[in-house]
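subagent[fold] <- orchestrator: predict structure for attached chain, return tokens only, no commentary.
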Amino acid sequence: MHLFFENVAPSMYAHWSGKFFNNNLLLSSDYELSKSQWENIGIQLEKVKKNMPIEIGRPPRDIFKYHNGYKAVEWRNWIILFSLPLLKAYLDNRHLQGWANFVKSVKLCLEPEISEEQIDDVQNLLKKFSDYYEREYYQNDGQ
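subagent[fold] -> orchestrator:
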């Protein structure tokens, strides 16, 4: 699960914040959120703290300010609880749907027990996410 929480989620945040590539020629404004958009998302996360049940675990911190210090549980909560509703206002539908495949797969993997059918669902969802990622973010020109 740490692959999802400590690798995929921070990498997607880096893409969406324009910090994944060192070469500015590879940037795509199609999926990047502005600094003010991330600040707004961070403010919304801070507001959630006040009404969040303690059963959920660690309360969310402002992702814009503290993403570098996020623990696995914070990335987990970002993925399964906060990312889709907060990104909906900013990401194009194809990016939101691509990410939603990943979110759904993570939610299934977090179930205490999963059936063979659910394992197939996870595999299909991760394949869809992988295909989406390669198409939209990988930017390999075949060389």
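orchestrator: received. Logging for downstream: Residues 2-138 form one domain. The chain has one domain: 2-138.
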